[in-house]
Amino acid sequence: MKEILVAGAGKSSVSLIEYLLQHAADKDLHITVADAFLQNAVDKINGNKHGTAEKLDVNDTEKRQQLVRKSDIVISMLPPALHIELAKDCLLFEKHLLTASYTDEGVKKMSEAIADKDILFLYEMGLDPGIDHMSAMQMIHAIQKDGGNIISFKSHCGGLVAPESDNNPWHYKISWNPANVVRAGKAGASFKQDGEIENIPYEHLFSPENKVMVNDELYSFYANRDSLAYIDLYNLHSAKTFVRTTLRHPDFIKGWASIVDLQLTDETKRLQTAGLSPADFFKKHVDENGLQKALPNDPTILEQFAFIDFYDDGEHINKGLLTPCETLQYLLEKNLVLTPDDKDMIVMLHEIEFEKNGNTHLHKSCLVVIGDDNIHTAMAKTVGLPLAIAATKILDGTIKLRGLHIPIVPEVYEVVMSELEKLGIKFELVES
């Protein structure tokens, strides 16, 4: 029997754990789900005889190493900063490690040792990063194999709300880690546009002018943190434009630009929220930081701010000392929640321009996934299923790759994308 450890049982782990449990009998698997809150793990196992729930404080080295030692493969669904502890354990005990998070500098330093131990650390194996890499590389390799020279690569992806559940002025509901939603874009963005390197600071990142059509729907986008690093990985040095972005509704981008202008994502100052209503907090924050000139007068933004309670004089926040960023997160989690009947939506679009035989061509490929409800979300499916499929394919020997990798090689993306297609996660060529 093969042992799989899933560390972290948050929102994005639902489909991952369900897939593993559904295939446990025929693949002879046992799945241990460990979380800082035991009930999270218990709920995800849901009484399945092929699973065990464990309480895990990542800082408890003895318990953490005990769980890693008995596993054949570890899937980390922990916050990105905590992956490194599991990575060290997996290297020590020679266990495979998978995660949906970006490859960090700490694990990169372990690259040679990982290869020497003949194990696989597969990072960026979720949605974005993850499915974006795999689907893009399928297109890129097919174009290159057919003699095309790629001159422009644009990849867009967004976790959005499904049209039938879009009933607030932000046109958005939280379907993944709320802290990541609030802090998105803080590092600014670097990308290549028409042969020039562009570096966009956080303050100018959310521009309503950046728009793209997807299946006759207009979306706005903002560039992801560092597109340039993927030029080498994708081997697209010939591309004059190379950018990876996040999709949002145009009104969301407009409202979020105002949020940034008002320094409401600041993490350096703290306010005592005891006895403060949201309106009190908002006024105090604006007054103490001299931000009166940044106050919005756009009707859409005013409606958005009212929706997340910035003008509410009622119930007090009463959360002690909070930064503006933490206060904003509290208000978003309260007001932009997915209700039980809500559905989220994933939209991904690749735009690849290439030259062949003296002519210029454009290929566009699109993925749209709708969630089932507020638990079985499109986000949970598209983040968790690639990890689950890869884990089973590593354990049965289909994927033999070793070392530190992201899923840009055919050995990984061909098998995983094929399985995802069977599960209804399928790209459509919308222009060629």
TrEMBL record:
Pfam families: Sacchrp_dh_C, Sacchrp_dh_NADP
GO molecular-function terms, A-Z: saccharopine dehydrogenase activity
Lineage: superkingdom: Bacteria
Chain ranges of the Saccharopine dehydrogenase NADP binding domain: 4-118
One cellular component term from this protein's GO annotations in UniProt: cytoplasm
GO process terms (BP): lysine biosynthetic process via aminoadipic acid
Protein keywords: Oxidoreductase
Residues covered by the Saccharopine dehydrogenase-like C-terminal domain: 126-425
PANTHER family given in the database record: ALPHA-AMINOADIPIC SEMIALDEHYDE SYNTHASE, MITOCHONDRIAL (PTHR11133:SF22), SACCHAROPINE DEHYDROGENASE (PTHR11133)
Name recorded for this polypeptide: Saccharopine dehydrogenase NADP-binding domain-containing protein
Organism: Pinibacter aurantiacus
